[in-house]
């Protein structure tokens, strides 16, 4: 079963739509001061998905507690996670890491909007169509890179590491890896395991890793279906079952530990506290049961 859009990326359907949605969360989050991504709004407008354009223009979402509650909650969570990763990457850069790899980067613009020390390369991997669309919009906007940037259009189920090495990635240097909203079912379990194995093998001592993951329990599946149903009612043609792989996934922290990483896992409450937003959003036990977990990991000498 093929779940990527490949070269013919469509911002309004399937997996392409999920990349657009990440930018929607950053656009709304930027309005609220949860994150700072000045490129998110123009990217969403350029993608042209009518419902998403309405959401970023809707002042209710920019206010605390406004708009559809499920959509509102999801946008906040994504923006806070984005901010957490922004800070995580900046800390890694301050600690001396000069290679950052964003796997399944979608329409993220950290290579244009974050501070990076001189000598840093930001590698981004996603479907070729996503990378081309983003580059074209940022060029038209006059976006200026803040690091050396290598965009790799690749299917992450294939040999993405060879493609990464071809553009200069050096496995002998420590790397900070992020996979934001990717390891939540977008790759089939065997491809996800292979990706973790490959990135671990290509990580020098001192490397770091951060990602969210979701075991897709029954409660999470139900929530996901309800969320997607809300979108369908807004005219988006989307089917969760066709979008994600619901097969059994191994535990992300256990998988990383088996490859030598030391891991820490956070809940949504802990994530909010880490970025100084504890109390900004009330988190119920139900929220905790249906939201992802946030894993960070470091690699020592092997
Ligand atoms: N990380 C971005 C963010 O948080 O805004 C995008 C997250 S989006 C939910 C998932 C991303 O994974 C999409 O951009 C999609 O194109 C990418 N993706 C999914 N399967 C992929 C595959 N097999 N190869 C390359 N990219 C893939």
From TrEMBL:
EC numbers, comma separated: 2.1.1.-
Domain of life: Bacteria
GO molecular function: methyltransferase activity
InterPro entries: Ppm1/Ppm2/Tcmp, SAM-dependent_MTases_sf, SAM_mthyl_Trfase_ML2640-like
Enzymatic class: transferase
Single Gene Ontology BP annotation: methylation
Protein keywords: Methyltransferase, S-adenosyl-L-methionine, Transferase
Pfam families (UniProt xref): LCM
Role noted for this protein: Exhibits S-adenosyl-L-methionine-dependent methyltransferase activity.
Family: Belongs to the UPF0677 family.
The protein, known as: S-adenosyl-L-methionine-dependent methyltransferase
């Amino acid at each position: 079963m093929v779940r990527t859009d490949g070269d013919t990326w469509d911002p309004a359907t399937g997996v392409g739509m999920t990349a657009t949605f990440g930018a929607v969360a950053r656009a709304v989050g930027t309005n609220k001061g949860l994150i700072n991504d000045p490129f998110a709004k123009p990217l969403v407008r350029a993608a042209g998905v009518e419902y998403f354009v309405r959401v970023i223009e809707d002042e209710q979402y920019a206010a605390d507690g406004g708009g559809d509650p499920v959509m509102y909650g999801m946008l906040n969570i994504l923006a806070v996670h984005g901010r957490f990763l922004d800070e995580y990457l900046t800390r890694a850069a301050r600690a001396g890491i000069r290679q950052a790899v964003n796997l399944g980067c979608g329409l993220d613009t950290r290579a244009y909007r974050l501070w990076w020390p001189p000598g840093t390369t930001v590698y981004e991997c996603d479907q070729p169509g996503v990378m081309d669309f983003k580059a074209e919009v940022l060029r038209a906007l006059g976006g200026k890179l803040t690091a050396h940037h290598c965009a790799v259009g690749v299917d992450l189920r294939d040999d993405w590491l060879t493609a990464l090495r071809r553009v200069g990635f050096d496995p002998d240097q420590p790397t900070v890896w992020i996979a934001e909203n990717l390891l939540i079912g977008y790759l089939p379990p065997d491809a996800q395991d292979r990706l973790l194995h490959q990135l671990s093998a290509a990580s020098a001592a001192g490397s770091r890793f951060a990602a969210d993951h979701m075991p897709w329990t029954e409660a999470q599946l139900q929530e996901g279906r309800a969320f997607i149903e809300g979108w369908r009612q807004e005219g988006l043609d989307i089917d969760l079952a066709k979008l994600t792989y619901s097969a059994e996934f191994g535990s992300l922290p256990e998988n990383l530990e088996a490859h030598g990483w030391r891991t820490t896992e956070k809940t949504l409450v802990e994530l909010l506290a880490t970025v100084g937003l504890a109390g900004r959003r009330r988190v119920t036990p139900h929220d905790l049961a249906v939201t992802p977990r946030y894993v960070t990991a470091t690699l020592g000498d092997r």
